[in-house]
Amino acid sequence: MVKVTIDERDLALAREHPRGTERRTLLPYREALNDVAAYARLGERDRDVIVRWAEVRRRLAETHELDHDPANLADPLLPYARLRAHVVAGECRAAGRSTCDDPGGDLVAAVRAIRG
């Protein structure tokens, strides 16, 4: 079961400090974010941290158009689409499946469906 909650305070903090928040949240998972197999080996609680941040990023991209800026070479934000694809692939592998559909939209709901 996905145990992820996101409230307005989380979104406000991420809006104000997106790069710092992403770095603090995801840095401990650097290896898992570069390797689907490493992601799949993480425990559910650690995967939930990544799923939560990816969902925060989805909401910010939709409501505030906040995403990776390829024109800014100093921009450390991961491209949202790549982060989402990696999460879906990692969850799929963790569930022992070779492929999974990504319906788009709420990533927490998509991961919940993958985990069954």
Unreliable residue runs: none
How large a portion of the residues is in β-strands, by DSSP E?
under 5%
Based on helices, strands and strand pairing, what is the structural class? mainly alpha
SS elements, strand count: 0
Biggest sheet descriptor: none
Proportion of residues in helical segments: 55-70%
Report the average pLDDT across residues: 92
One letter per element, helices H and strands E, the order comes to HHHHHHH
- Helix segment tally: 7
Radius of gyration: 14 Å
Shape estimate:
globular
Terminal Cα span:
8 Å
Give a structural overview:
The protein is mostly helical and 116 residues long. It is 64% helix and 0% strand. It is built from 7 helices and no strands. Helix 1 (8-16) packs across helix 2 and helix 1 (8-16) crosses helix 5 (44-64). The longest helix has 21 residues, at 44-64. The chain is globular and about 35 Å long.
Per-chain topology:
Blueprint: H1 8-16, H2 18-26, H3 30-34, H4 36-41, H5 44-64, H6 80-94, H7 107-115
Helix pairs in contact: 1-2, 1-5, 5-6, 6-7
What would the keywords be for this entry?
116 residues; mainly alpha; 7 helices; 64% helix
How would you concisely characterize the structure shown here?
The longest helix is centred in the middle third of the chain and has 21 residues, at 44-64. This protein has seven helices and no strands.
